[in-house]
Design goal:
elongated, 32% helix, alpha+beta, five-stranded mixed β-sheet, single chain, three-stranded antiparallel β-sheet
């Protein structure tokens, strides 16, 4: 039986502290319509901005995101869908471990 107590997880008779890690994975894609985002919008999402800059140079990237950025960045990306940044189009994926 699995019981979730915040960051403590009980499995059977054992207790585990859960550490969550979130990364952003970016890659350049070809999609006809994407939502352009501005530098001003990205000021609130520093990891997303760094990921876009890196993916623009390398074609794709994976960056770790601090926990305090996860939910606001995820909401922003869901709202925007495909992102157009500096003329390049990107899809964004979140990986939790």
């Amino acid at each position: 039986m699995l019981i979730d107590e915040g960051n403590v997880l009980k499995f059977g008779e054992d207790y585990f502290i859960v550490f969550v890690n979130c990364s952003l994975r970016m890659k350049r894609i070809v999609i006809p319509e994407c939502n352009e985002i501005t530098d001003d919008e990205l000021q609130m999402y520093p990891t997303l901005k760094n990921a876009l800059i890196t993916a623009e140079k390398k074609g794709s990237t994976t960056l770790k995101a601090p926990p305090e950025e996860w939910s606001k960045t995820l909401s922003f990306v869901r709202e925007k869908g495909c992102i157009k940044f500096n003329g390049s189009k990107f899809e964004v994926h979140f990986m939790l471990s």
